[in-house]
Amino acid sequence: MPPLRIALVIAATAALFAHTAQPVEVTPPAVRKYLSEPLISKIYTADPAAHVFDGKIFIYPSHDIDAGITDRTDGNHYAMRDYHVLSLDQIGGPVTDHGVALDLADVPWAGRQLWAPDAAHANGRYYLFFPAKDKAGIFRVGVATGDSPAGPFKPAREPIAGAFSIDPAVYGDSDGAFYLYFGGIGGGQLDRWPGNHYDATALPPTATQPAVAPRVARLRPDLLGLAEPPREIQLLDTSGKPIVAGDEDRRFFEAAWLHRYHGTYYFSYSTGTTHQICYATGTSPYGPFTYRGVLLKPVKGWTTHQSIVEFAGRWLLFYHDSQLSGESNLRNVKLTPLHYRDDGSIETIDPFRN
Ligand code: FUB
Fold this sequence. Notes:
This protein is mainly β. 5% of the residues lie in helices and 37% in strands. The strands form six sheets. Strands 6, 7, 8, 9 and 10 form a five-stranded antiparallel beta sheet that branches. A five-stranded mixed beta sheet has the order 15-19-18-17-16, with no helix packed on it. Strands 2-3-4-5 form a four-stranded antiparallel beta sheet, with no helix packed on it. The radius of gyration is 24 Å and the shape is globular. The protein starts with a helix and ends with a strand. The chain binds beta-L-arabinofuranose.
């Protein structure tokens, strides 16, 4: 063997030996810690709609269960059957689970899947707004009333006429008017309601067409029905153009929420497939809302859903992830402070810290 070749073989053997025989330093994967811990672990909870009633924080979440449903089409495995209300007197204090506030079996029109609810206080009563599939498998929005923020709630016999799809969110404005926001694409069926009429064969927009938009309607003074036909909310980019369906980082998917800060209306929502909570701002509860940025980066799990409320002089973000179970449909609710910059933009929250 020529001297050069011998030298190369020796070098290669030495290198191989070094690789296999030397202790190899392994860099452990970055350990990601959660920004905050579950508020309650005895039951699985998700989609936290938080409100301050009677000086306390009340949370109206979905109550996740393992219903043994393996069919994940259209979110069928999210097969929740009741609602529990949670409350806490102070941030970091103990969380009370007030037990079953509404049971699917007591809702005459509903068939299955009690998804994300919300609540309101008016007329000396408390109102729980909730979506469920009716007996024909179409998502509707129902309302139930009670004397206490913790429930129990008595459901109306029929769903709210003119309200459909999922994720109702109620906003009470400073002039006493209440607005109902709703809708969720994909499993939430909003794509099937072009022009507010149900059409199971409706085609979703193409990637370059405006995205399917959530709806808003003012509620009647008794809050038991809509005062007007729902309007499509315009979500615009900063050049004033509608956000298009192919813009999955910014287009609406589900989880509508409205809050007001320094006179500006903030519409926040989940982008679904890209797992972000984004927000957009406007000067009216009807919109249009102009996209401002990401409020919450993706959490552990598939879904993400938020509410924002001011309590004791601090702004709080309520959200969920799948920390406890690792399963996308068995979630746990959390809270973390939220911070505004001087220009009214919101600092992006990372649900993990390194
Ligand atoms: O909890 C069921 C559905 O998952 C909600 O309605 C959506 O917002 C998503 O969180």
